[in-house]
Amino acid sequence: MPEILRSLVLMSHLKEESIDTWVDRLRGDDLLAVICGFVPGQIPGVGTFYDLLDRFWLGEKPCRIRKARKKRTKLADGEKLPPKYPGVMDRLVARLLEGRAFTCREESVLHQILAISVVRPSLELGLLGDPKDMTTAGDGSIYETGGSPHGKKICKCEERCDCKRRFSDPEADWGWDSYRKAWVYGHTGYDITAAGSRYDLPIYIGMGRHPATIASWPYAAWTISEGSTRTSSLQDSLPMPPMTPTPSMSC
Fold first, then answer.
1. Is residue 128 within 8 Å of 122, Cβ to Cβ?
2. Per-domain residue ranges of the chain
3. CA geometry: angle at 19 spanning 27 and 192, to 5°?
4. N or C: which end of the chain has fewer CB within 10 A?
């Protein structure tokens, strides 16, 4: 698996989007194969790559067939969409204080890979600053997807209709970007960085979650012992869990 992970990182760095094409490149370029850790002439098949990717996500695969999602009413300057689940932060904080762990989320494997292979080595090298006096910063953003918001028509209607369609990115949705003052079709992201270091490196990367649910970041909290955190304006009025790690929050 390390070789395939390294291969996927290199694939992203070289801006290659097709696994099929990437496997062909590896089989035709011994240098790329060696950089990834493969033995030339013994490159895994395309199916092996997809099998590994499927294991990264513990949840069920979303159904690609659904109705198109529409934009909501345009918001005023500085206005944000209201929380979809009011009170969710209070409930999450209460559960954290009770010692409940959040280790069974769909993205848990990805968080473990980031913590073990990236965050922990960076901490040991001193790239994240002093772990006993760490300053973190968190903020959300909207990432535009490459999938079409219109989907592919699968019905036999000759005129415009509201029938279900097939989408390449079925979990994408419309969201209002208050910075760009425009609707963006994609996903919500939330990043936490080690703001006290000169490198400002990420220690947590979350996708598809409302910023208010930052209480569920179990695989980044282990790096924080004492210090402070800066978050987006959305969280200024929300309860926050204590920043001292507990056994249930360690990886």
1. yes
2. 2-56, 66-249
3. 125
4. N
